[in-house]
Amino acid sequence: MIILAATPIGNLGDVTQRLVEALRTAPVIAAEDTRVTVHLLKALGIDNRPKLISLHDHNERGKAAELVELAREADLLVLSDAGMPTVSDPGFHLVDAAAAAGVRVTALPGPSAVLTALAVSGLATDRFTFEGFLPRKPGDRRAALHGLAHEPRTMVFFESPNRLAAALADLATVFGADRRVVVCRELTKFFEEVRRGSAAELAEWAAGGVKGEICVVVEGAPPRVIDLETGVAEVLTLVGAGARLKDAASDVASATGLGKRDLYEAALKRR
Q1: Range with the lowest mean pLDDT among 14-28, 108-122, 229-243?
Q2: Cα-flanking dihedrals φ and ψ of residue 50, to 5°?
Q3: Residue 7 reports pLDDT greater than 90
Q4: What gap in Å lies between CA 11 and CA 116, rounded to an integer?
């Protein structure tokens, strides 16, 4: 089988017992960076010397079929540099190929920068969306943010410290200067910092320079003020695109503050 294993995102003390046991016995490890894996084995005092195969964004598509066949014969442990493989890290194409080939895939849960940042942010956690890294180019980044400007769920992003100030400035422009934002830096590490404020305030703070691994958590957009008739029209548009009526009513209710039952019943009469 293929075993996706979460590794610590900063503090080695977060390593799970299941990961330690897997590292001690793994015959083959596919790793985002084999040097990081060697360091992890040494840091944990593990003397196992598995076969190490490099698996990263640039070679994953080409190696996926080979690794799937290897996993038919022996367990294949898959590691990213930190956190869970496939989550903004290599592994997705491998899992996709394994599923198509009927090879079992399981996971060893563990640390997650996304969930850790969300948990400490103080923003709504009942519904959220993970958006990965924003585009590098300013025009593409602003276009991506415009597409999320009315997203009602809390949003979690990864960002490079070198682009953080520019990204926050664009976020303040597109989402509004007062949108609540939380920047989580160096989570679980000695210099961990969680800084909360408006988009404009944090853009000004980041302009002075920021270092470390960064997660940005952004408050969802406030409900749009529209009348019931317009809301029903939006529900029916979603249904026409293939959504279930119940789900469409729920989505429009979340985005507008209109009653879900009112939307559902009115849309049902219009169908």
Answers
A1: 229-243
A2: -75, 165
A3: yes
A4: 13
Strands laid side by side in the 154-159 sheet: 128-133, 154-159, 214-218, 180-185, 193-198
Model pTM score:
0.84
Q: Cβ distance 232 to 263 under 8 Å? A: yes
Neighbours of 10 (CB within 10 A): 20
Q: How many CA atoms lie within 13 A of 189 on its CB side?
A: 15
Go through the domains of the chain in sequence order and give each one's CATH number.
2-108 (3.40.1010.10), 113-218 (3.30.950.10), 228-270 (no CATH)
Distance CA 121, CA 100 (A): 38
CA geometry: angle at 122 spanning 193 and 249, to 5°? 140
